[in-house]
Design a protein that fits this description.
The complex is a heterodimer. By secondary structure, chain A is mainly alpha-helical. Helix content of chain A is 80%, strand content 0%. Chain A has one domain: MetI-like (MetI-like fold, Orthogonal Bundle). In chain A, helix 1 packs parallel to helix 5. The longest helix of chain A has 34 residues. The radius of gyration of chain A is 20 Å and the shape is globular. Chain A starts with a helix and ends with a helix. Chain B contains 9 helices and 21 strands. In chain B, the strands form 4 sheets. Chain B has a 6-stranded mixed sheet, sandwiched between helices. A 5-stranded antiparallel sheet of chain B has the order 2-1-4-5-6, covered by helices on one side. Chain B has a 5-stranded antiparallel sheet with strand order 14-13-12-15-21. In chain B, strand 12 and strand 13 form a beta hairpin. In chain B, helix 2 packs parallel to helix 4, helix 3 runs antiparallel to helix 4 and helix 4 runs parallel beside helix 5. Chain B: GO terms for molecular function: ABC-type transporter activity; ATP binding; ATP hydrolysis activity; molybdate ion transmembrane transporter activity. Chain B: It holds the Pfam family TOBE.
């Protein structure tokens, strides 16, 4: 179970990248999920398709598209570097973007289902009591969908921890910089005598995944109890 | 307080075309299921956007499609009590009430939290979750929550329809207190139950298949023989004002009305209390001469004000009884045989037991 320095770096980087990807993705996913569940607008099916694209495309294709658009010579990548000095390709920040994009459809799906399960008549009732739209969302919708948001966040986190194809295509596999846990396992399997470290990392990956599931179950039960009011 | 509603809306094959103006107190919107009552109240609240229309409360325009005005529900200041209560399931009763109070406009007049809790008998429920409340309790909390939002008017959509009869009788006194209390809050009350309407309303608007068919003061509409087919021949009946005089040991109470005295059972109110009695048209018997040797003890001298013959075998007859009006439903044959005509004086008879406690209101 002991990890060498490179494996340890890969594990902590993966956790760091996954936490960032989850934290950044949740508000955006919530907004998109709300738009898809509650609003009618022109281009809604196009938005829905776009959100789901990473789920159906081969991850390597998604990674390559990210490289084309967010790479240093890509249109968005150049703009980000010029205005914010932010470089994504071949950096850990790019690994965050790749993990975020790949986990995004899973988050949106879970949150959209949760929002659609909330009776819109409760939101109407809140509005007639004088609550502006943001307050209706914050005080009625959000507490009621909290378990779904949590489930979406955990799925996004798990996807980020395991993301391989898009990450390795977009930010490569640089030890200590962009070598995430799956990339490290892949690397160890390529070198003779690397199996021991690969297995150690696999066990750690299981621990993290199980921990995330157990924690989310516990949080979901607490939220459900609060909603039931018992 | 004035409420002015003019609406036109198409939804599939259904066309809503309703216009009415009403004053203070409770305005009842009466009609069968599917008549369009809920569409009207939703358009007033801002939850439905009609094709064309104008809604104004006390001169404040909430909706005017011609001028492009359509205030969102949260800016209309109308407390809406839904048929299904719609309490927030993640908040206990106290927090549901707080939700109403939180967005009350600062400085708006309205009852204090403690007064609302007393009025609706909520003090024992504060820590309970909505899921653990009975239907009647939920509805009382919903009314309290709406009151605490300090609305300019209350909207109530069949607030009693989901309750069984005893629960209804529990809630009605609260609604009467709301109407008569110091709040004097105007209420738009949607119902398909004529007994509720007769007990509560000051003003009545009758809707049928999306169209406004009659409107006016409750006493006027309910005593209008032309309203009988609209309200249903078995349900039609006038409402008269009465004052409790005394209760006897045998359970009968004496009430004074403008045309004399009535003896009724099941009157709970103290002497001196003013009540309204709903007397169904089908329970009233007419006699040209004062009957003798009759078991019925309620015999009133009346004058025939109007005779309205319908398509069927029945006729609705409007009667003047003192300053009150009664409605009687008899067969057209009886009208012919007795030679009944407008202006004729005769006697109206009804059994004490036909005035059910549910037909007696404040």
């Amino acid at each position: 179970m002991t990890l060498d320095a490179a494996s340890w770096d890969a594990l902590t980087l993966s956790l760091w990248v996954s936490v960032w990807a989850t934290v950044l993705a949740v508000p955006l996913a919530l907004w998109i999920a709300w738009l898809l569940a509650r609003r009618d607008f022109w281009g809604k099916s196009a938005l829905n398709a776009l959100v789901h694209l990473p789920l159906v495309l081969p991850p390597v294709v998604t990674g390559y598209l990210l490289l084309l658009s967010f790479g240093r010579t890509g249109p968005i990548g150049r703009l980000l570097e010029q205005t914010f000095g932010l470089v994504l390709s071949f950096r850990w920040t790019g690994a965050v973007l790749a993990a975020l994009v790949m986990g995004f459809p899973l988050m949106v799906r879970a949150m959209r289902l949760a929002i659609e399960a909330v009776d819109p008549r409760l939101e109407d009732a809140a509005a007639t009591l004088g609550a502006p739209r943001w307050a209706v969302f914050a005080r009625v919708t959000l507490p009621l969908i909290a378990p779904g948001v949590l489930a979406g966040a955990v799925m996004g986190f798990a996807k980020a921890m395991g993301e391989f194809g898009a990450t390795i295509t977009f930010v490569a596999n640089i030890p200590g910089q962009t070598q995430t846990l799956p990339s490290a396992i892949y690397t160890f399997l390529q070198i003779p005598g690397g199996e021991a470290q690969a297995i150690a990392l696999v066990l750690w990956a299981c621990v993290v995944a199980l921990g995330a599931v157990v924690m989310s179950e516990w949080l979901a039960r607490r939220v459900a109890r609060r909603i039931a009011g018992s | 307080m004035t409420l002015s509603v003019h609406l036109r809306h198409r939804h599939g094959d259904f066309t809503l075309d309703v216009a009415f103006d009403s004053g203070p107190g409770i305005t009842a919107l009466f009609g069968r299921s599917g008549a369009g009552k809920t569409s009207v109240i939703n358009a007033v609240s801002g939850l439905l956007h009609p094709d064309e229309g104008r809604v104004a409360v006390d001169g404040d325009t909430l909706l005017d499609t011609a001028r492009g005005i359509d205030l969102p529900p949260h800016r209309r200041r109308l407390g809406y009590v839904f048929q299904d209560a719609r309490l927030f399931p993640h908040l206990d009763v106290a927090r549901n009430l707080d939700f109403g109070a939180r967005y009350a406009p600062p400085g708006a007049k309205g009852p204090a939290r403690g007064d609302v809790i007393d009025l609706l008998g909520l003090s024992g429920l504060m820590a309970r979750a909505p899921a653990t409340l009975s239907g009647g309790e939920k509805q009382r909390v919903a009314i309290g929550r709406a009151l605490l939002s300090r609305p300019a008017m209350l909207l109530m959509d069949e607030p009693l329809a989901s309750l069984d009869a005893p629960r209804k009788q529990d809630i009605l006194p609260y609604l009467e207190r709301l109407r008569d209390g110091p709040l004097g809050l105007p209420i738009l009350y949607v119902s398909h139950a004529l007994d509720e309407v007769a007990r509560l309303a000051d003003h009545l608007v009758v809707i049928q298949e999306g169209r406004m068919r009659m409107q006016g003061l409750l006493y006027d509409v309910l005593s209008d023989p032309a309203a009988v087919p609209l309200l249903g021949v078995r349900e039609a009946g006038a409402v008269i004002a009465a004052t409790v005089v005394a209760h006897a040991d045998d359970g009968l109470s004496t009430l004074s009305i403008s045309a004399g005295h009535l003896e009724l059972p099941g009157v709970q109110a103290a002497p001196g209390t003013r009540l309204r009695l709903r007397i169904l048209a089908q329970d009233v018997i007419l006699s040209r001469d004062r009957p003798a040797g009759l078991s019925s003890r309620n015999i009133l001298p009346v004058a025939i004000a109007a005779i309205h013959s319908g398509d069927g075998p029945g006729a609705a007859i409007a009667l003047r009884a003192g300053s009150d009006r009664l409605l009687a439903r008899v067969t057209s044959r009886a009208v012919t045989d007795l030679g009944l005509r407008v202006g004729m004086e005769c006697f109206a008879i009804f059994k004490a037991t036909t005035v059910a406690p549910g037909s007696i209101g404040r």
